[in-house]
Amino acid sequence: MTTQNDNIWHGAYKIPWHDPDFSRRMLVEHLTQDSDLASRRTEWIDRQAAWIHDHLLHGKPSRILDLGCGPGFYLHRLAMLGHRCRGIDFGPASIEYAQQHNPDESRCEFILGDIRQVPFRGPYDLAMILYGELNVFSPAEALAILRGVQVGLTSQGCLIVEVQTPEAVEHMGRGGPSEQQCESGLFSDRPHRCYTENQWLPEQKIAIQTFSVTEATDGQTRKYRSTTKAWPDGEMIELLTGACLREVVRCDEWPGNTDALALWIARKS
């Protein structure tokens, strides 16, 4: 497992969700109503989209940016409520689904690309980074993304960021090893064994998961790493203000279905 500080955010520190096969398998998890592994279930997305429309946008037609939009579940709903939307995600299967189910192409646009590289454009009244997406980037990458968002907001624009709580990230990192025998799953279409190891780096507040996937047919093993940064409240405030965002608050009114995620709100001015 990775223990050298200099290597934490280098190399394959993320599962390659942009790979077409990974993306295709992940889309299945986005769509299922049996779990909240990749996306929340429909009933909660409905509630949250309505909350954004009513409480943040006050029912007024607005321009919205969704970074890490996945299959477009939020923007599909918000476009139907009269907003103009742009979503960016680097999962090809997710973007294809979002485009195929786009309720109004004149109001809603989906872009395949890495949010660390794709221009955000703008101006936007609201930008969203939901479901712990920001936790998977290095601090430097997270700051760069937030600075790009800040530039793209209107003078009174708002950003909402939903992050995994520090307690949830640490719990994941301190978890014991586990093993699963799968007929198919996220890591392979074929029968395989997945052995998961977890590591918690307290100084950096980072959890590292290493997945060793062994194919049943040929016995070959592939390894993948997932790196997650915990953002305690003080560090989260510092991160957002460092991106020139203001009025930073943690929002307890967000209709979430888990204590493992928290929503933060910040404004451009």
* Radius of gyration based on Cα positions: 19 Å
The CA-CA distance between the termini, in Å, is: 43 Å
Helix content range: 25-40%
- Find the CATH topology of the largest domain: Rossmann fold
Proportion of strand residues:
25-35%
Overall pLDDT score:
94
Q: What is the assigned CATH homologous superfamily of the largest domain?
A: Vaccinia Virus protein VP39
CATH class of the largest domain: Alpha Beta
Biggest sheet statistics: 7 strands, mixed
Number of domains: 2
Work out the helix count: 7
- Rough outline: globular
Q: Using DSSP, what is the number of strands? A: 11
CATH architecture of the largest domain: 3-Layer(aba) Sandwich
**Strand order, sheet with most strands:** 3-2-1-4-5-11-10
Succession of helices and strands: HHEHEHEEHEHEEEEHEE
Low-confidence stretches: none
Structural class: alpha/beta
